[in-house]
Amino acid sequence: MQWIDLLRLPLAALAQQKMRTCLTTLGVVFGAFVLAASLSINEGVQQTIERESSKGNIARKVTVSPRWRGNDNKTKDDVKVAGRMSPDRRERIRKILAERSRQGGSGQEHIALTRDRLDTLSRIPHVAQMVPIVGGAVVATLGNRPEEASVSSGAGEDPGFCKRIVAGRAFDSEDERSILLSEMFAHRIGLVDDVDLDQVIGKPLRVEIRRQVNGPSFNVSLVDRAKAGGGKDEDSALRQLAWQIPGALDRLSLTDEEIAALRKAIRQESTQSDPALVVDDFRVIGVFRELTDDEKKEAWSQFPAHTDLVLPRQTAVDLALRDPVWREDGIVQTVLFVDDMRNVKEVVDKVEALGLGTRSIVEMIERERLTYLLIFGGMTCVAGIALLVSALGIANTMLMSVLERRREIGIMKAVGATNWHLQAFFVIEGALIGLTGGSLGLLLAWSVSFPGDAWVHSMVHKDMKIYLSGSIFAFPNWIAATVLLFTVGATILAALYPARRAAMVDPVSALRHD
Amino acid sequence: MAIRAVEVRKVYGAKGAQVEALRGISIEVAEGERVALLGKSGSGKSTLLNLLGGLDRPSSGQLSVGGRDLDQLSMREMARFRSTTVGMIFQSFNLIASRTAVENVELPMVFAGRSRRDRLAAARQALEAVGLGARLNHRSHEMSGGESQRVAVARALVNRPRVVLADEPTGNLDSHTARHVMDLILDHVREHAATLVLVTHDEELAATCTDRVVRLVDGQIIDGV
């Protein structure tokens, strides 16, 4: 018998019972649809998370911060619990005391991000780039006007930062002695007109790191106003007033005695206040704007987002580490950029082995993986049940078909069909139903993915203000292969028993049947 | 020798409720010989025909058809034997209702492994030979009893079998049609020097169409060996 006939005869048999074939196939279509949708969403969500994570190199980023490391040597056996009590209770109390001792005891060691540790971190294999983050409050003086300001390091790691420069330029190198002002900081210190922004370029700006950046303090009160009720603007204005009062005493309507008394008081105050620990002058080379709404909507917004001043990365680190306290305590954090997302876990392990804390998107992805694994598992169960029901339906239908076609089977045997031929016919009928149902189910899942994707995009945008790029459904070739393999496999299994029954038909009794 | 049966027995049913359909039948039929099996219902004629056609196996005894020892054949070889060595014609035609005349005639050639083009040509030719050239694509419910039986004859003879086994082929036909169908069978047998075993109740048909009449009673041959 020719192979093409093994296909032609089952096809003819299926075509003969059109409605039954359609209904049987429909069950397989449903099972294949759920399976394809489940696999597609699982793959698509993974790809979406990785795609969104890889925006701005976030997936390769490991943020390292200092950490307190407890004294692990102290075991619960070292803790003595006094008093008469049951062994169980003593054990419970001893265990908790030992744990607390480990967490908050005097034996804790501070693992700081000192210069040595930064060097060690930069030498970890697969670390492509290290970006130390220095930030904090300083006193910035432009001309004769001191102003509290926040300063950050960096912007070098973000190529998009150049777009935010509204006057002057961005940094050329990581260690140049320049500084950038934020548009809002410039506005706050009186650079209101556009021309002021151009004129500030090239001017020196003094940066002072103090232990307490509170400036001179006076008990200034406005009548009938509680200090807390004035809000941030009033507080800022009062602090600015406090900064400027010493230089403005002459211009106030005060007697010489009053001025002398106030100057004396201010001198006393100044000697009590904290002197600057580090002072340095930088040249203003540019002004940058705040993030736009669109830039804020980016899932992984770039650094720096809200800061008054930006120093080149290495310049900022050098400035900070001139402070003896910073030198000892180290910087607040550093960011490591790993050469490939797949190596992030290895780098994280190495950093944590040094006793430092880490944070990376990979950890979040790992946590998210559990969520979508549960969803995927649930959908796969539904698909499995649907396919099982379809398979049982197919087995039942084909068994009926064997009974109905008993005479036909007898005739085929009488004219030369072997048992193998008859089994093959029924198995191929099952496989054809599986193949057609699986293909249609795949097609349906693919068709539904378009409105489904649009709905998910709108939901995510509505609830999270995130524009997802790409589809949350993915249809790589392996999904099509898996779905077809499952559906054809299930239907073949379902057809095996009816096929065996067909082969066992006795031609003599089948032909006697009328 | 075209057919040789030695002490062939066929027993149906489970132990304790057994029915002996054939009781040690021995018969020989020469190449090209036409033999009629005559007997009442239940005498074992059809059972013997089914054994000769390879549809069933004897409980004991030796059976050789067309030079093949049937008890030596595997299931696959037996199927091949049915499609090429013998051609069977049944009283109730046994056509597949959902298939056309040409598809029914084509069927033995499908299992014999002949190419589609080859078997379509052969099926058309066979149907034209039995006068159904205009009925190629008709299904059995669109044809009369005589036409259906002629399709069955075309199907049985299309592979040019050495042995033709006919189980009351005219039993459901009027006399005129019966004569025509028998002529078709006999023409083939003469033309190809085939052996014919005809099961019938009809004494006259047996006498006119065959060389020898073998009578069966209760599973035993009583005359004509």
Walkthrough of the structure:
The complex is a heterodimer of chains A (514) and B (225). With 514 residues, chain A is α+β, with helices and mostly antiparallel strands. Chain A has two domains: 203 residues, no CATH class; 248 residues, no CATH class. In chain A, helix 2 runs antiparallel to helix 13 and helix 2 packs across helix 15. The radius of gyration of chain A is 38 Å and the shape is elongated. The relative contact order of chain A is 0.18. The mean pLDDT of chain A is 82. The relative contact order of chain B is 0.20. The model of chain B has no long low-confidence stretch (mean pLDDT 90). Chain B is globular, with a radius of gyration of 17 Å. The longest helix of chain B has 18 residues. Helices cover 36% and strands 27% of the residues of chain B. Chain B has one domain: Rossmann fold (3-Layer(aba) Sandwich), CATH 3.40.50. With 225 residues, chain B is α/β, with parallel strands linked by helices. At the A-B interface, helix 1, helix 14, helix 15 and helix 17 of A face helix 2 and helix 3 of B.
**Ends of chain B: how far apart?**
14 Å
Strand order of the largest sheet of chain A: 5-6-11-8-10-9
What value does the average pLDDT of chain B take?
A: 90
Percent of residues in helices of chain B: 25-40%
Number of domains of chain A: 2
Proportion of beta-strand residues of chain A: 5-15%
Low-confidence stretches of chain B: none
Instruction: Calculate Rg of chain B over CA atoms.
Output: 17 Å
Number of strands of chain A: 13
N-to-C series of helices and strands of chain A? HHEEHEHEEEEEHHEHHEHEHHEHEHHHHH
